[in-house]
Every structure is written in C-alpha cells, then in structure tokens.
Amino acid sequence: MEDDEKVSFCERILSDLDNIFKRDANILEFDIIESVDSICNKSPVIYVDHNLALEKWCIPHLYDYANKKIVAFKNNSQRSDLYMIHQLTRIMLFINPDLTTAWNLRRVVVNNNVQTHLDDLKLTELVLLRKPKCASLFNYREWLLNSLFQINKTISFQLVDHELVVTLNAASRYARNYYAWSHRAWIFTFYLTNTNNSQYINKKIIEDLQITESWIESHVSDYSCFQHRQFLFGTLFGYGMIPSISAIVSEQSKIEILLNEFKFLNSLFRLYPEQESLFLHRRALLHSARRWCPDKLELLRQSEIEFYKKHICPSLIESPVQRIKSWSDEIQQRYLAYLKRNLNWTFDN
C-alpha cells in the first residue's frame, strides 16, 4: 500500500469509527476479528447491534499510522489538534492497551475537555473487555476517579458501586487478575480517604465479603481474591486504613465474621483438599489475627484444633508411612509446621 493511499485509508477508518461512536453511545464491545475474504478496498469497520470490530488485516497499517501521528504530536509544542489525538489514542488503546504513552495523552485530552471523565471511564470498560488484565488501564481509571473527586469534591455511590462491578467482571474474564483486585482494594481505600460516610463504606465492606465469598466458590484457586478478602478483614478490624471505621462494628460481630471465614474455608476444603490457596489464606488470617484480636487467639486455636481433628488428622492416620506423600499431605504438613513455628501451636493426638 502506497503512503498516500495508506494515509487516506487510515483516515477513513478513523472517521468511520468516530461517526459510529458519535451515533451510538452504548457500544457494548470492541474486537479485532479474522476476515475470510480480506479485500483491501472495502471498509474493515464492522458494526452490528451495538458491537464494533475491525478486520485484522488493517491493524498493522492503522497502528503504524496512529503511532507516527502521535510521535509527531509529542514533538509539536503547540499541540493544537487534540481531537485527532483523542481518535488516535482511542484506536491505539483498543489495539494495544499496554501503551503508557497513549494513556498519558488521554490525560491531556481529558484535561482539555475534549472528552469528559465519565466518557473515558466508559471507553476504558470497552478496552477491559479485550484485555481485562492491564495495569496501565486500571491506573488510568484511578486517575479519572481522582480527577472527578478534585472537580466535584464528592464521589457518588453509584460510581463506586459500578466500579466494583467493573473490577469483578475483569477478574472473572482473566484468572488471578491481580490488577483488578488491587484496583478493587484501591476503590475502598480511595472512598474511605475521601468521605465521611463511614456507615456506607462499612456496609460495602460487609457486602463485598459476601460477594467475594460467592465468587470464590467457583474460583477457588484464585489467591488474588483471597488477598482482597484479607484486605477487607484488615479494614474491618481497623488496620491499614481509617481506624474509625472499625468502631462501627462491634468486637463480637467482627470475631463472628472471622470465625465464619474459617468455617467457609472448611467447607471449601472438603471439596478441594489439594488447593494450596485455602491453606495460604488460613495462614494469612491467623498471622494477622495476632494483631487484630490477640485476646481471641485461644478461640481461634480451638477452631483450628477442630479443623485438624476433622479434616487433617484422619488423612494422616489413614496414610501408610511407606506411601509416597500426595500434594494434599504436603500442604497439610507445611501448614502444621507453620502453626508450630509461628504460633507455637501443636495438635497432639
């Protein structure tokens, strides 16, 4: 493809995409698809029922064109055509969401009111559908929310609730999505830091423990979610965030919630005895409990003795000494060694 022809071709694609976004504010999905009969003189833009796609054969030409334009823009001190940068960065991020330069230019676009913060939050949701595990994208969403707060001096409940839905969807689309769960924890931290509505955020913490409990039942190996639950427990007990939140829930209720977590782990252990994530989560909770509720350690110890007698001890007795250890045996022994080494807990028969 000749240079002039390529420029004209790429500009036509950008124009077609821009017209679609202007006509339809409810685009559901963007994707890049294979084309059986790739014909270079027809438009590679496909738009059906609020779903948008580009044929794969045009991507190298479009990406190269957009990249050269962006480099030229960065070298231009006046930076006049911001709407063009909005179009270019939009398509570049659909193709490659890990491009930090493009995200930085989006900040310029938003700061100059070419796009609103809410429009860009919606745009990044489309990008998340293609690449749900992207650190730069979540960092950009955090910047958008921070900027919105600086402008409005408040954060709406609806925005917080929606952001929690976005992170859970991203975590569901990509296993062990540490970036999504870290962003979810950031939402709680950010809201706690910038609001006096302790009652609401406490309600959301309890609610999130319930939501993630249901989520873990079908993603039991996803330790990133368990780490998020550890963060929620730490917040509930008043560590790592604003301590005043802890005062809303009674100490008795906190202990009951913590004990229920161990019961929940016991129920999962019966189904997944070889999942190391269950033991790692137990260890993390017990380790933190020394700080959260040191006066309740004996109660937790009794709970662990019951777990040991019901689930671990029978398997150790039934296993012949000569038998090669299974992975389940190994992680159980590691757990018992941890309890002895760090808590000085031993469970004698």
From TrEMBL:
GO terms for molecular function: protein prenyltransferase activity. Keywords: Prenyltransferase, Repeat, Transferase. The keyword Repeat applies. The keyword Repeat applies. GO terms for cellular component: cytoplasm. Belongs to the protein prenyltransferase subunit alpha family. PANTHER family: PROTEIN FARNESYLTRANSFERASE ALPHA SUBUNIT/RAB GERANYLGERANYL TRANSFERASE ALPHA SUBUNIT, PROTEIN PRENYLTRANSFERASE ALPHA SUBUNIT REPEAT-CONTAINING PROTEIN 1. This is Uncharacterized protein. It comes from Blomia tropicalis (Mite).
